[in-house]
Q: What sequence folds into this?
């Protein structure tokens, strides 16, 4: 063991620095290789849906709220997914509705992570009474029944997209807050964080240079998971008739078709496409989010971010015992 | 250096310092109004570190060495006593007033795998203290970083600047940690077990770096459980047991003529170059006692091989010893049996 250590030190010292300097590209590909097929598949599907959200209105064959044929006309070459209860083209609505779902999903996820991340970092870093108060608030939000809250807030604040984003964000920040708090608490005890404090670094500096960058990967994984939740929430808010009535969305399509007797007319084409779209995009986001979390969440994998440390430590424990 | 001159000029003076940790009580204990148990990790310690002096603090695990270091660095509040740095009282300074002083007193930690941010390249780790204290511009900092690395034996620095901690060996990491501490050109360095996690083959290298720093006027408080390390590098030695200093004096004198039974036990189990001359190793029975329940009388008596009835009753203070160091007031031991050293030696045989 000792001999090899000496050798490695000499070997390292003898090599030109260029071969040893970490190459960002190599690191990125290494990271990508570590990702499983599920992450790749999920990411591909999400990219597709994001693309649709961007260009959907441009490629939609018909206007959204334009009666272009009989009510519940079956799928045909000119209307591949048929028509719904208003005689609107289902495919066009689906393509345009993607934008609402993705916008609400992304924005609400970001809002919830911003709230949850901030509260988690503050609670974990400051600790003590602040931590206690913030965590009790988190517990309180955790047990709020979300659907009644959504109904009430839609009634009180009005049914527009911004309010939906805010309300979903307000309901879903708790998981992120608890996760991040736990992680920050453990980081705070790290020797290199204490060292920075003893160097005279301010609390803000320690937070921004040593702690926040360490929890950022976790935040990203959580954001992606949250997108799935938020898209799903947006769909059922719209399904409950609490969505923005002026913009088409998948939830609103399902809601209006069901209310318009799609079941009675056996018009499966008016209900299934938006339902499947929601399922697929939620599944894709979950795949990506869970894949990222598997490799980043220290609770799911004992290795934390600096995996190598754990490989080296037992060896040095033995040395010390010698 | 006489004690009087040392006291007025010393870089670090610690006087009667005490620090304790409060253990959490369970709900039932709180309801029963049982008193909160208190760990007296540091219980009235006085020591000094002069400029250009290496002072070793020796003791087994749990003796309070690291707590003492944390308290001196003001990472843990002092309960009693005073800490003076370069003549300035720092025991109760707020964090804002401490900041300029932190520049002049630095600490290095035991575990070089833990003390470097894994996402920071060497360049950033070593320049971080400079950035925190707003020293120099970009170019000047780069110079200082290179200088510090070179001083710690990482030469040429260009080879190491862009590496991450995981690309370095243990010895290199500890050198980086030392370089980061040195970049600020501190006057005092507290090294908490700087080599205990390192391979024996690289220990000497790191210790030589520290020894070289002493010659440039740096005061070093070297905390170690390894008496051999202390013996070879320290000018003076403090032996700590259960939160107290039990023996102190010039390093060679403490090791060649240990007076306190605890020091004698430590010395007897330290490997020697000539094993036959050392006498039988004296293995202390039992563990260091729980610091929440310090034994009455001399705190070492439950494990002491020569303890008498008197040891159970009186708590000995540090007293000068007969002999050259003791006569000069430098070699002290806290043992009622110590002043007559022959008695201790005879009884222990």
A:
């Amino acid at each position: 063991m000792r001999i090899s250590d000496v050798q490695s030190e000499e070997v390292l010292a003898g090599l030109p620095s260029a071969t040893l300097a970490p190459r960002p590209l190599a690191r990125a590909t290494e990271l990508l290789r570590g990702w499983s097929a599920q992450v790749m598949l999920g990411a591909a599907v999400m990219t597709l849906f994001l693309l649709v959200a961007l260009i959907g209105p441009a490629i939609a064959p018909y206007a959204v709220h334009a009666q272009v044929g009989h009510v519940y006309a079956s799928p045909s070459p000119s209307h591949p997914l048929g028509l719904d209860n208003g005689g609107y083209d289902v495919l066009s609505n689906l393509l345009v509705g993607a934008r609402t779902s993705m916008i609400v999903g992304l924005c609400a996820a970001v809002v919830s992570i911003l709230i949850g991340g901030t509260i988690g970092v503050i609670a974990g870093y400051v600790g003590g009474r602040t931590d206690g108060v913030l965590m009790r608030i988190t517990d309180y939000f955790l047990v709020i029944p979300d659907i009644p809250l959504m109904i009430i807030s839609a009634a009180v604040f009005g049914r527009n997209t911004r309010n939906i984003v805010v309300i979903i964000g307000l309901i879903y920040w708790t998981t992120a807050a608890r996760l991040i708090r736990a992680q920050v608490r453990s980081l705070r005890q790290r020797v290199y964080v204490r060292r920075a404090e003893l160097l005279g670094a301010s609390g803000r500096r320690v937070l921004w240079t040593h702690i926040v960058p360490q929890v950022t990967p976790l935040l990203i994984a959580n954001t992606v998971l949250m997108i799935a939740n938020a898209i799903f929430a947006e769909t059922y808010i719209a399904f409950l008739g609490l969505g923005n009535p002026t913009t088409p969305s998948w939830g609103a399509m399902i809601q209006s078709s069901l209310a318009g007797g799609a079941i009675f007319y056996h018009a499966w084409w008016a209900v299934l496409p938006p339902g499947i779209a929601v399922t697929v995009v939620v599944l894709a986001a979950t795949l990506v989010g869970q894949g990222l979390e598997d490799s980043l969440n220290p609770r799911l994998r004992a290795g934390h971010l600096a995996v190598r440390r754990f490989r080296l430590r037992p060896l040095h424990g033995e040395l010390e015992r010698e | 250096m006489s004690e009087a001159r040392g006291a007025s000029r010393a870089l670090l003076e610690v006087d009667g310092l005490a620090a304790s940790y409060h253990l959490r009580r369970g709900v039932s204990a709180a309801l029963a109004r049982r008193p909160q148990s208190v760990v007296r990790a540091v219980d009235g310690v006085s020591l000094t570190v002069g400029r250009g002096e290496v002072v070793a603090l020796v003791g087994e695990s749990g003796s309070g060495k690291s707590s003492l270091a944390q308290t001196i660095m003001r990472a843990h509040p002092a309960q009693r006593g005073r800490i003076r740095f370069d003549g300035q009282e720092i025991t109760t300074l707020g964090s804002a007033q401490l900041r300029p002083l932190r520049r002049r007193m630095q600490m290095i930690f035991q575990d070089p795998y833990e003390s470097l941010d894994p996402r920071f390249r060497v360049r950033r780790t070593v320049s971080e203290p400079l950035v925190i204290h707003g020293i120099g511009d970009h170019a000047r900092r780069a110079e200082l970083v290179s200088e510090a690395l070179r001083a710690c034996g990482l030469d040429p620095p260009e080879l190491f600047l862009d590496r991450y901690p995981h690309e370095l060996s243990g010895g290199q990491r500890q050198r980086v940690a030392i370089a980061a501490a040195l970049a600020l050109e501190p006057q005092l360095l507290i090294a908490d077990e700087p080599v205990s996690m390192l391979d024996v083959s690289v220990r000497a290298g790191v210790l030589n770096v520290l020894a070289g720093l002493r010659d440039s006027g740096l005061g070093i408080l070297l905390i170690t459980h390894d008496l051999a390390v202390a013996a070879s590098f320290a000018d003076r030695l403090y032996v700590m047991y259960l939160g107290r200093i039990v023996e102190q004096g010039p390093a060679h004198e403490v090791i060649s003529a240990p007076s306190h039974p605890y020091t004698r036990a430590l010395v007897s189990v330290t490997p020697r170059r000539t094993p036959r001359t050392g006498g039988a190793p004296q293995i202390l029975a039992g563990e260091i006692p729980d610091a929440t329940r310090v034994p009455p009388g001399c705190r070492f008596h439950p494990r002491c091989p020569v303890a008498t009835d008197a040891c159970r009753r009186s708590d000995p203070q540090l007293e000068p010893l007969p002999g050259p160091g003791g006569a000069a007031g430098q070699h002290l031991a806290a043992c009622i049996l110590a002043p007559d050293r022959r008695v201790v030696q005879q009884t222990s045989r």
